[in-house]
Amino acid sequence: MTAPPHRAHPAGPGRPSPDTQQGMRRRNLARVMHTVRAEGRLSRAAVASRIGLTRAAVSTLVDELVRWGLLEELGPERPGRVGRPGSALAVSSRGPAGIGAEIGVDHLAVCAVDLRGRVRSRAVRHVRDRARAAGPVLEQLTALVRQVVGEAETEGLWPAGLAVAVPGLVARDALTVVRAPNLDWHDIDLGGLLAVDMPLTVGNEANFGALAELWLDDRTPRDFLHVSAEIGIGAAVVVDGRLLRGTRGFAGELGHVPVRPDGPACACGGRGCLEQYAGEEAVLRASGLEPGENRVGLLADRAAQGDARVRSALTDAGTALGIALTGAVNLLDPESVVLGGALAELAPWLLPSLRAELARRTAGPACPVTVSALGPQGPLLGAAHSVVRGVLDDPAVVAERT
Ligand SMILES: [Zn+2]
């Protein structure tokens, strides 16, 4: 039996460290990292007072984090003061980086994010991945990952892991794409097909989009639904700051919630699913437009120009979204619904009917619906940041890999 592959933590904090001395040390290393990252330049004494440990204990932890390249010392702080000056600490701008990748229906994208959360390198290829075999797509993605990692390495960074966002259902092993209907992929093991020498995680793009909202936008509550679209419609449920994954990892398939049980047949085997009314192709069809390149941009442009047929199609899509979301909102009572991905760009024309439908159908005050500031960038950033979070939440993994 072979050991399972080493994983990053796609859902933020991993399994809590056991209550041993070693587990406590790992948790304290994480507390130091998070404190310095949240507050910026801090002395060891300041870190000690923030987390309630002795200065000596914090110094030992900091020494380790500096040795591993996770923290850097910026030199003496307050040089004019009497006594031994404390050295200000900061999260390193070199060292480990999170590599995020996205496999879209029309594009591949890869980026490297450093521990401070800055994107340091990025590459995008516009390709038609639809119905292409997984092999060539993943070969191209591997080349793109190598390009981004090469660029990051020239800046003193090294890849701590790769997280890949895909538009489909991912098994709980976080490596196998069980079904990606819009790519026409079934049971594809990315662990075997992506030739990269780093820990690998694969996740649903809507989930990574939701994590990006949670981690990168201070306004995001800890209980929310994130709804996003490319060709399909996906959703992610975040409860108390954590993703709800479901027994098989398939939670959030809002696109296949029935809006009209006797509606048109859907590829999933059901009828009248949300995707049949609010998916890109349905909206294009209702608008009298041909599916082609830049479909969302085309819809947004036409709607902005006042095209009545496009506006009416988007109003109907908003109504369908409102009906499908009613079930989720009534069941889960989230603090808000966030529209991301392509839906963010179309929000001005979707929101009025969506909000009206939700208000009419939900018990109690209507759940607020907001628009993601990250838009289509969410899944890629969420993927890269999931690797960064893995390092911040358990910095000792870096020592095990270096
Ligand atoms: Zn369906």
TrEMBL record:
Keywords: Kinase, Transferase
InterPro entries given in the database record: ATPase_NBD, HTH_MarR-typ, ROK, WH-like_DNA-bd_sf, WH_DNA-bd_sf
Pfam family, one: ROK
Compositionally biased spans, kind Low complexity: 1-14
Span list, region Disordered: 1-24
Gene3D superfamilies: 3.30.420.40, Winged helix-like DNA-binding domain superfamily/Winged helix DNA-binding domain (1.10.10.10)
Domain (HTH marR-type): residue spans on this chain: 32-81
GO molecular function per UniProt: kinase activity
SUPFAM superfamilies: Actin-like ATPase domain, Winged helix' DNA-binding domain
Family that this chain belongs to: Belongs to the ROK (NagC/XylR) family.
Protein name per its UniProtKB record: NBD/HSP70 family sugar kinase
